Amino acid sequence: MGTDRYAYLSRLRRVDPVAKVWTALAVLLLCLFSESIAVGLVTLVVMGVLNMALGGQRPGTVLHFMKVPLAFLVIGCLTIVLRPLGAEEPALWAVWLFGRFRWGISGAYLRMGLMVFCKAMGAISAMYFLALNTPMTDLVLALERLHVPKLLVELMELIYRFIFVLMDAAGRIRVAQESRLGYGSFRKSLDHMGDLVSLVFLRAWRKGDKVYTALESRGYDGSLTTLSAAYTGGARVYAWGAAAIALQAAALLVERRLLT
Description:
- The protein is mainly alpha-helical.
- The protein folds into 2 domains: 1-135 and 229-260, no CATH class; 149-226, no CATH class.
- It has helices spanning 2-9, 17-33, 37-53, 59-67, 70-81, 107-131, 136-145, 150-179, 186-217, 235-259, and strands at 82-84, 93-97, 101-105.
- A 3-stranded antiparallel β-sheet has the order 1-3-2.
- A hairpin with a 3-residue loop joins β2 and β3.
- α7 (136-145) runs antiparallel to α8.
- The longest helix has 32 residues, at 186-217.
- It starts with a helix and ends with a helix.
- The model has no long low-confidence stretch (mean pLDDT 85).
């Protein structure tokens, strides 16, 4: 889990996680509700710079994680930009398919596709600021302090724990299958992948029962208690968050003036 590794090595590791949560959330919401290409681009750049300047992340690390959702966004935005058009509808580019269907790119849908792409990338950049600088244990404690429903927080913590259980089980089964010449052909790959999925589910179910039994034997009463760590104040994070929001607002105003 790469984000956890970088979060524990971040310069902001000991900073109050509540400050990081509020900063990321405020920047994220403004990016999503602004309906602006410029705000999305500003959010993407500013939060990436904050990740490197405050968190100490390397540029290659930030770019590596930004590439993860890029393929999904490109495919999703292409379906917005490239769409069927009417025979008389103005288009920047269009082509007739089979002499009956007219597909192309219009100015309005091109702008919509760019806006969705920029907003999504900006929102992802804001969330990476939180993920790359806040370990999961700190985030759970911050959510408890923010009075998020306890059941939701504990479910999130347990689900997070079982991600590693599933990864470990799947890795062991995959090694065992490959050592028996599995995945040698497409048909074998499908068969072995089906076996892997079913075995992972069964082992995870059994592991869940064992974990619950272990919790009950240690006095589990329906809630998980975790000791809070000592954190430094988050005034610097709040200040940089306010600066990021100011840049977003400035970008929104400039874009609206240019478009009117």
